[in-house]
Specification:
Strand order of the largest sheet: 1-4-5-6-7-8-9
Helix content: 40-55%
Number of domains: 1
Radius of gyration: 19 Å
Strand content: 5-15%
Order of helices and strands: HHHHEHEEHHHEHHHEHEHEHEHEH
CATH architecture: Alpha-Beta Barrel
Number of helices: 16
Bound molecules: coproporphyrinogen III
Distance between the termini: 25 Å
CATH topology: TIM Barrel
Length: 345
Amino acid sequence: MIPNDLFLKACRKERTERTPVWLMRQAGRYLPSYRILREKAGSFLKLCKTPELSAEATLQPVREIGFDAAIIFSDILLPLEAMGIPLSFEEGEGPRLEPVREEKDIERLSIPDPEEALPFLMKSISLVRSELNGSVPLIGFAGAPFTLACYAIEGGSSKDHRKTLRLLYSEPGLFDSLLDKITAATIPYLRAQVRAGADAIQLFESWGGILNSRTYRQFALPCVRRIFSSLKDEGVPMIFYLNGSSHLLREMAASGADVLSIDGRLPLGEAFQRTSGEFALQGNLEPSALFAPADFLRKEAASIVSGAPRRGHVFNLGHGVLPGTPVDSVKLLVDSVREFSRSET
Ligand code: CP3
């Protein structure tokens, strides 16, 4: 098998013959083969925790769509469960966690040994690595601490995050102690993924954009910096995804990441200029564009490719693939990115 290292090269800002492409949430319900596998597993958590099945879910999009990177099939909330927060996924309702809001809830949380608490994940990573046999790189991931704190405090998804913000404003010390514990758990968790075979890591800061830059800098950024500076010695590319990044680019640039993953609202050319071309950039098609007619989708893809830096661009969405996305549109997108980026070099 000829190794495809376009993704790793682009992360390192090296020249590539074309732009590599993978999509956040590339595994999941939009793929018929995933729905069959999920049915077989019985539940989403069972799927995540059975190495053979989660390895299969990781490989499906790589095989069927032909992405240039795989991302290990898991969820950002699993480490919270390993810390002692009961987690469930109710059918059609999203995640549910036992809320963490008081000092005693935070004190009770443990900082687990990832090999002991999440052995299935490390097993799945090594299975995927051997199946891929070097054909494409594998990405490991974790949620960024502020985003995980949002889920822990709200007890699940939330529209306005009022409980999170109330705790942050009224008991900043307590909020910090929660972030601190999550950060301490995240560092060995990501390190274990790299040791098991992940070729790159990504932090998902899905809710960072709800904070203004001063508050982000005060509470959330120090955790992200601590994670990236601790893991730098592993020598793998480190990607920082921040949803709602337009007002937080300076904070992203100060995170210690190698690659900044930008949401769909900010043109990549502008992100490039505002960060002085220092970083590789990942992104940033709006996920909803995959529901648009083919010619619109192709135009959007072309404009992102031509507006991105020539070196150091990993094509991705600005957020995850939405359920119900037509598989043919995803295929068309991948083909279009290849076509446009090849003709530009
Ligand atoms: O393909 C991949 O990207 C790898 C797997 C992956 C999943 N979740 C699988 C999943 C990754 C990287 C994630 C990250 C994740 N999980 C994030 C960050 C990215 C983002 O979307 O902002 C967040 C916030 C979560 C938390 C989460 N997991 C929610 C809110 C939900 C319910 C909503 C939904 O999309 O269903 C999940 C469930 C989830 N995680 C599914 C999958 C495939 C769907 C489960 C199913 O019904 O089969």
